[in-house]
Design goal:
326 residues; 3-stranded mixed sheet; alpha/beta; UDP-galactose 4-epimerase, domain 1; 47% helix; Rossmann fold
Length: 326
């Protein structure tokens, strides 16, 4: 990787991945792009940022051409819950946007990272120790776009020799960017509610078990995969990766070890609950571990401790800044 473009750079993964890539390869070699005209200050001030719609193929190709990009981390997408409310827009962004990236990669010989998801599985998939290679018949539009994306990446690799690689991410937990409409967003929202209000109303059932990962692990996994020796990859796209598996009740219990007065209630969102019930409870990620050395650093205990510390620190900083300004 010499010159990198990150699409969807203002999203939950994009913000942290862009910063990590700039720290690793140098800010001048990592270009951020997103649909937000005014991105977070640390993103726009640490390197180049372009505001554009991923569906604008000409704008995308112009950036790749002008800045001699050889790698694209393609993160721009509508997430699961939002996609269900706007299925046509989700298809347009998630599929036509990916096709634009793959075409740019074909023309200018770029490697491509594409994030798939546990959403690529469906109710017919084995839910525990979900195999790397298994039936994929998702019932959500988001999941359908992820399976289609996996297949498109495989097609461009086999027919055009494009170095496409990808991960099937579980639910992601981050303290840097707020969630953007995913089914696993409760696992982020709950921390902010716990610190601010000591109470959270969860939209999933207490016993809904899903795979999860802390964002530092998600970022390191993407970079490690793209840096891996291509000759050692038996699977190229959509590696299962996970770090922990828990329910809302288990997450709440871990938070209560730090905040004993925290309480949780359950107001079920039938749309997101149905999506969650069709997803794996735990994926088998042995292929990623054996082929490119995947190994997470954060378990549930470490994630909860760091999330609470980071959010409480940010809250103190805001109060201090308000006091100085006042």
């Amino acid at each position: 990787m010499k010159k990198i473009l990150v699409t969807g750079a203002t999203g939950q993964i994009g913000v942290e991945l862009t910063q990590a890539l700039r720290e690793r390869y140098g800010a001048a070699y990592v270009i951020a792009a997103g649909h937000i005209s005014q991105p977070p200050t640390d993103l726009s001030q640490s390197g180049l940022y372009f505001h554009f719609d991923i569906r604008d193929a000409s704008a995308l190709i112009q950036i790749v051409k002008d800045y001699h990009c050889d790698t694209i981390f393609h993160l721009a997408a509508l997430l699961s819950a939002v996609a269900e409310t706007s299925p046509l827009e989700a298809w347009d962004i998630n599929i036509n946007g990916l096709l634009n990236v793959l075409e740019a990669a074909r023309i200018y010989h770029c490697a491509v990272f594409f994030p798939s998801s546990i959403g690529a599985f469906g109710p017919e998939t084995p839910r525990f120790d979900t195999p790397q290679d298994t039936i994929q018949r998702p019932k959500s539009l988001y999941g359908i776009t992820k399976v289609s994306g996996e297949l498109l990446c495989e097609y461009y690799h086999h027919h055009y020799g494009i170095d496409t690689r990808g991960l099937r991410y579980p639910g992601l937990i981050s303290n840097k960017a707020l969630p953007g409409g995913g089914t696993t967003d409760y696992a982020v929202d709950i921390f902010y509610a716990a610190v601010k209000n000591r109470h959270y109303d969860c939209f999933l059932r207490a016993d809904t078990q899903l795979d999860m990962m802390y964002m530092p692990d998600a970022v390191s996994a993407a970079i490690a995969l793209m840096e891996a020796d291509s000759d050692k990859l038996n699977h190229r796209n959509a590696f299962n990766v996970t770090a922990m598996s828990f329910t809302p009740a288990q997450l709440a219990a871990e938070i209560q070890k730090h905040l004993p007065d925290f309480t949780i209630a359950y107001t079920i969102d039938p749309v997101r609950q149905a999506i969650a019930d069709s997803w794996p409870m735990h994926m088998d990620d042995s292929a990623a571990r054996s082929e490119w050395g995947w190994q997470p650093k954060y378990d549930l205990e470490a994630t909860v401790q760091d999330m609470l510390e980071q959010i409480e620190f940010k809250n103190r900083k805001v109060k201090e800044d308000d006091y100085v300004a006042g």
